[in-house]
Amino acid sequence: MRKIVIAPDSFKETLSAQAVAHIIAQAFRSQLPDVELVEIPVADGGEGTLDALIDSSNGSRHQCTVHGPLGEPVNATWGLMGDGITAVIEMAAASGLALVPAAQRNPLITSSKGTGQLIRAALDAGARRFILAIGGSATNDGGAGMMRALGVQFLNEQGQALPAGGASLAHLANIDLSLLDPRLAECQFEVACDVDNPLTGENGASSIFGPQKGATPEMVQTLDAALARFAQVIREQVGRDVEMIAGAGAAGGMGAAALAFFNSQLRRGIDIVLDAAKLADQLQDADLVITGEGRLDGQTIFGKTPIGVAQLAKQFNLPVIAIGGCLREDVDIVHEYGIDAVFDCVHKAMPLEEALAGASDNLYRVARNVAAIVAMQRRLV
For the segment 72-100, what is each residue's pLDDT rounded down to a tens digit? Predict the structure, then answer.
């Protein structure tokens, strides 16, 4: 045992991916002081993607005041990776659901304009390659708000600009690209998209994700019809048929906007992050991989960090251990996807608040015990 790669996601609401990796490394160092420990915090395209990519590339963070989902000013962060040309934009930072109090959530009117403003700020800083993480959105506007911030005009039959929000797209008659930022033609976008929903229909953006953003059944119908109109006008005037493409419905239809207006491709968020972090390079001479996230369960297999890490590790025939804040009863399915063993941090029944407060200590304890097992196994060989 010479080298262990530690590549976890964050434990949501408690520990960042960087903190999780560091705590696990400390615990392993206490039992295996002579082993090289490589910490690579990662993410799956949602919360924490910016931090994982900026930290792994020695990049920089930048602040920008933008329009929040309801038009209020929001101080949001975007990142520039160490290469100086790749920007990391987290939609959630500017247009995220967490920015809207539950009582005010209304996808008929929420806008993704702030995300477009972050992109414009990155363009001003010289970025020409973009990683756009679109998890956690509060919007259902098809990315129209984002495109408005970049110069696109969405007009009704009278030539008037449509108001913000998804509902107004029902009245879309013309898409004016004459003022679209010309720098976008030089840019390449990778869109972190972990769902395969189309833009419209029973599996579309409005039907599947609208309710969690505050949509009533009546709102869902209104929004779905509006996005269908949006897709029709894009098809007729932009020449791109995005309505039924897998992933077009991600982030309230922002996937569709990226396909229609950017030079872009939709990819699994974890694949984008692992490529950017160059995890494969570190795995080539590793002996063991440790990964994890806040909860390990049956949903983990759907593009989440531990499975992405495990699948890459198996290309090098490496054993993989996953540590979770907690485990669900359906967790055993992860063993079919490359994770050899799972451990949880909660060592006794306790209230959620207590578990969250003790996350660091609990993680260190379980990681130390896992490391002790590895150390014993090494002595037995």
Answer: 999 999 999 999 999 999 999 999 999 99
